Amino acid sequence: MAKYKKGLAFRYVQETKYYRERSPRDDLGSIPSPERFKTYRDAERVQLPQPDLTEPANLWECLAKRRSERNTSQDPLSGQELAKLLWAAQGVTARAGMYLLRTAPSAGALYPFENYIYVDRVEGVPQGIYHFDVAEFALECLQEGNFNQQITAASLGQPVVRKAAVVIIWTAMMLRCMVKYRERAVRYIAMDLGHVCQNVQLAATALGLGSCPIGAFYDNELNELLGVDGEEETVIYMVTAGKLG
Ligand SMILES: Cc1cc2nc3c(=O)[nH]c(=O)nc-3n(C[C@H](O)[C@H](O)[C@H](O)COP(=O)(O)O)c2cc1C
Fold first, then answer.
1. Where does the pLDDT of residue 245 fall: very low under 50, low under 70, confident under 90, or very high at 90 and above?
2. Fewer CB within 10 Å: C terminus or N terminus of the chain?
3. Number of neighbours of residue 204 by Cβ within 10 angstroms
4. Contact present, 113 and 69 (Cβ < 8 Å)
5. How far is the CA of 86 from the centre of ligand 1 (A)?
6. Dist. CA 56 → ligand 1 center (Å)
C-alpha cells in the first residue's frame, strides 16, 4: 500500500483529478493545434467496399456471445468482412461542422488515435501494413509484404497474433487530446480505445469471426514497424481477427 502511493500510477491518478475548488496541475505550456487526421498522401490506396449494413444482427445475442477467441483458422477474410470490422471501429455516422462523428464515442470528438491494419490474409488486399483513412474509408499502403513474424514477435510471441488474418493496431496521438484535456488526456485516450475495441469485437461476433484484444507487446518494436516516433504517436492497443477454426 505504501509502495503504491510512491509509484507512478498513484501520482498520475492523483494529479489528474478534477476538484471543484482548484485547477489540476499543468506544466505543459502551450500546445500548437495538432492535425485532426493523419494521411499518407503518397501511399498507394486500396478502396474498401461499402460495408453492407442491411444484414441484421441481434445486439443482445452478440453481447452474450462476445468472447476473446485465440484460435482462428488459416482462411482469409473477405474484403466485406474487413470493411465491416473497420466500419464498426471508426465508421463515420454523422457530420457536425468540422467534426466527423463515428460509431464509437470520443472525449471532445477528438478521436486522438490512428488506425493501422496488418493484413495477413484478406481476399483482394495484398499482404502488408496499412493506415486506415477514416474520412475516405480507404487503406493507405505503408509497406507491402509478410510482417507476420515481426508483429507476432513484437506481441511477445502470442500465437493469437500469429494466427490472425488481420491485426488492427491503434496508436495514440497524444497531443490531439492533450491540447484540450492536458495531462488528463491519457485517461481519455485509453477510454476511447476501449470503446473502439469493443465495437470491433461485437462486429466480429455478429460476423461469426474470432477476435482478441491485445495489450501485451514491445512498444518500441511496433512503433518502429509502423514508422511512428513512439513519443507524440505511440502504439496503445491492438485487436486480432480471423475466421473461427
Ligand atoms: C486491455 C486488454 C488487454 C488485453 N490483452 C490481451 C493480450 O495481450 N493477449 C490476450 O490473449 N488477451 C488479451 N486480452 C483479452 C483478455 O484476456 C480477455 O478479455 C479476458 O480474459 C476476458 O475474456 P473474454 O474477453 O473472452 O470475456 C486483453 C483484454 C483487454 C481488455
1. confident
2. N
3. 27
4. no
5. 20
6. 27
Per residue in 209-241, pLDDT (tens digit) is 999 999 999 999 999 999 999 999 999 999 999
Dist CA 118 CA 141 (whole Å) = 10
Helix (H, G, I), strand (E, B) or coil at 46: strand
Grid cell 477528438 is found at 110
Residue ranges around ligand 1 (CB below 6 Å): 67-68, 70, 158, 160, 212-216
- Grid cell digits, residue 190: 485509453
Altogether, the residues listed in the chain come to a count of 245
- In which residue are the cell numbers 460495408 written? 51
Q: Which atom of ligand 1 is nearest to the CA of 217?
A: 8
| Tens of pLDDT, residues 117-164 | 999 999 999 999 999 999 999 999 999 999 999 999 999 999 999 999
The distance in angstroms from the start CA to the end CA of the chain is: 44
Residues 100, 147: Cα–Cα separation, whole Å: 32
What are the C-alpha distances in Å from 20 to residues 24, 178, 186?
Answer: 10, 21, 21
Angle 174-181/185-206 helices, nearest 10 degrees? 130
